[in-house]
Amino acid sequence: MTAVSVDAKGGRVFAIALALAGWVVKFIAVVLVIATFNFILVHAAPGDPAQVIAGQSGASDEKLLAQLRAEYGLDKPYPIQLANYLKRVVTLDLGYSYRQQRTVASLILERLPATLLLTATAFSLALLSGIILGMLAGVRAGKWSDTVLTVVSLLLYATPVFWLGLMLVLLFSVQLDWLPAFGYVTIGVPMTALQRMVDIGWHLILPAVSLAAVYLAIYTRLMRSSVLDVTHQDFIKTAKAKGLKQGRIIIRHILRNAMLPIVTVAGMQAGALVGGAVVIETVFAWPGLGRLIYDALLQRDYPVLLGVFLVMSVIVIALNLLTDAIYRVIDPRVSVRAAS
Amino acid sequence: MSTLKSFLRHPTGMIGLFVLLAVVLLAVSAPWLFPDDPWEMVGAPFQPPFSEGLWLGSDMLGRDVAAGIAHGARISLIIGVISTLTSLVIGVTIGATAGYFGGKVDEVMMRITELFQTIPGFILAILLVATIGPKISNIIFAIGIVSWPPLARLTRAEFMRLRGREFVQAAVCQGQRPLTVVLRRILPNAISPIIVTGSLAVASAILIESALSFMGLGDPNLMSWGFMIGAARTVIRQAWWMSVFPGLAILLTVLAINLVGEGLNDTLNPRISRKR
């Protein structure tokens, strides 16, 4: 008996290790490919790569350009340049913004917390509320809840996310004056740490809701049909026949199984959500990476753009891994499967 | 023929079709309805809707909002359709190759597709347009590059399903070349789900275009809905109409295309359509 359980435990640890190794490989592959993408983009841009790196400032300083060519080895063959670039990326050297006179890594680090806060809030808001609302709609399945959900999700699906944000500002900030229209924290007011956190949370509501809205609608609708599908399956009948309480059936049997497709879809849409964050940060002057992209665009500051692209792709992979982990935890059929 | 008939009986599909036709009509007749350049100042700035001669008001530079919406419809529809055609060419080629040949080829193609699905497509589109320049052809190319993966996956699944069917094997045994088999035997049988997904892709292409021009990456010579909203967002407290109307235009157009797409789905794939 004990031997068997130890064996099973060993298998479990091994499977987790294998899954982790699979994630690491995927992570490295994606980072390398995106770095290569970046490299190609710099060379595909019209004009001298040195000028691209310098940020295409109108007054091109010949001395700076010559220094850049030497520093980045721009006279060497492409494969060597690429290898050098990848080496720098791996050592977290994302380049230097000549526009802002700072390293790209420091610029990104400064903006990262705001973006992580926004995307994580929107992602969990959409996922959690979607699952709960869909569950309620599915358990009390009626014609009207289906119709309302279908109409709302159709409308939200057709709404540009930045426009939704602006309309919410118009309603809740301009008309009702309930919520701040933009920014991260109220400036120029002395606050304790706790007050500051509450203030940030207050500022977070509109951007997070605008970003999450469309996904919330999708997940609610998905969850509802998934709950209906699961409810009609044999193992639910068995559970009822066993005499289990309704609440226990819903939570242990229906909820767990019905959540699986939603978690899968959420993982697939992580990329779109992070892309949406860029636009939302622009609308709400949220001081994150998206806002950094917007400013870098205005100044054609390529090192910053490329660095942010890389970091945002890493955020997407992280969200993928997170949904993958959630899936493994809630999937009742197999405890841990080897990485696919 | 029967497909057409059943689409005509599809209520929401028909609503979508009517709205879409209205948008197309607006786009086509924009040069006659609003012969002036939409960038031209035609009245006093900050005129609210229903002012003299400006039923949707004017923007902060005195440009006619209604004229901007009519001319913007052209850009949205053109970019939506052509960039979807671009992503169809890429997606169907990759999906067909993967599904037809299978094995190692499939493995490689699907890894590439997965990669493109992982990276945040909108940011890649921003980078592409910023690097190669905000011209309409470049914007179309960028949207095409980021929106092909779902089409590739769908095509691959359809090709794998049809690959083993007898009529395909018969064609292969007769010695028909792979290209002939793919184009004349398999593709015609796989076309209806591709059409449905393609029509929905037009809607998302229009959304991406509007977000790009909102971020200031639209073609600077062409009036577009996203640009109008982006330009007006700083004055939203004083002038709601400058951002509300172009946004409604996007919402209506995208909604109409989605309704038509769902209608097509119900009529072209009647068996699977109700499983949504």
TrEMBL record, chain A:
It is found in: Cell membrane. The keyword Secreted does not apply. Residues 112-323 form the ABC transmembrane type-1 domain. Belongs to the binding-protein-dependent transport system permease family. The chain crosses the membrane at residues 12-41, 116-136, 148-172, 200-218, 258-284, 304-327. It comes from the Bacteria. Keywords: Cell membrane, Membrane, Transmembrane, Transmembrane helix, Transport. This is ABC transporter permease. One of its GO terms (cellular component) is plasma membrane. It comes from Tardiphaga robiniae. GO terms for biological process: transmembrane transport. The lineage of its organism: Bacteria, Pseudomonadati, Pseudomonadota, Alphaproteobacteria, Hyphomicrobiales. It holds the Pfam family BPD_transp_1_N. It is a multi-pass membrane protein.
TrEMBL record, chain B:
The keyword Transmembrane applies. It is a multi-pass membrane protein. It comes from the Bacteria. Its main location: membrane. The keyword Cytoplasm does not apply. Residues 73-261 form the ABC transmembrane type-1 domain. InterPro entries: BP-dependent_transpt_permease (IPR050366), MetI-like (IPR000515), MetI-like_sf (IPR035906), OppC_N (IPR025966). Gene3D superfamilies: MetI-like. Belongs to the binding-protein-dependent transport system permease family. This is ABC transporter permease.
